Amino acid sequence: MKDTRSIAIAVLAVSATILSTVLVLSFVAVGPARADSAIGAGDYIMVAGQYSSGKDFLYVFDLQKRGVNVYGYDRPDNRIQLLRSIELRKLFRTEGARNSR
Length: 101
Description:
Order of helices and strands: HEEEEEH
Shape: elongated
Strand content: 35-45%
Largest sheet: 5 strands, antiparallel
Radius of gyration: 26 Å
């Protein structure tokens, strides 16, 4: 009976040490969250923006379709909604445009 208690205490002590180490490393290794930088993965680039103190936006650029969707946070309804969808080809006339000098 004494051997099983000693083994159980040793196993619990090792488990507690491992979990404590993982907990400490998870707080040390993670940097601060930043919302002011662009994130690009594959065919999309996402950029957070702010118009005024109460208005936050998320710009999602679709590189394959060459468009941008602008999403805003609706505080009263507590949801994110699509505010505008823009085709960059039409806006900047990238196709068929000539260089004028």
